[in-house]
Amino acid sequence: MRRPKRGTRPSVRPQPVAGLLDDVFRWLKLDEPARAFRALRAFQSAAGPRIAARARAEKVRGAILYVRVTSSPWAHELHALKAELIGKLKRTPGGEGIEELRFSVGPLDDLPDWESLPSPAPRALPEAEPTPFCVELERAVEAVRDPELRDELSRLLGRARPR
What we know:
This protein is 47% helix and 12% strand. The chain contains six helices and three strands, in the order ααββααβαα. The protein has helices at 17-27, 31-52, 72-80, 82-90, 132-142, 147-160; strands spanning 55-61, 64-69, 100-105. The N and C termini lie far apart (51 Å).
């Protein structure tokens, strides 16, 4: 093994942040709760809106994800779709380690609805000063007589503005 010259740092290969976070969670002994949290969230994403309206992931024990559903017919239907759901979960970040689904019937009110949780607020950027060309374009859009076309052009112009 070659030793680096004195006074130089050994080169360190860049690593994905997810790998670093996994190491930190393991060091803090939070790796299992973090894995479970990601799997609970992954279920709603993998299940899609139709199923997520009637079923929510409740807890994780090992490789088993426990899912609460609103009624027995839904539990039966999801049991029939179990293989497909597990396949989707394995392709969804956070759900890779799930091998089995178990269903129970009960109210969903006390379980988190991941879609309704607020996402982090975007950072506010300073407004850019409009260029003379942008000002002229805005005037031209305001002069369009068709209100539907004017609204669409305004929306398009808003997305094209420099930030």
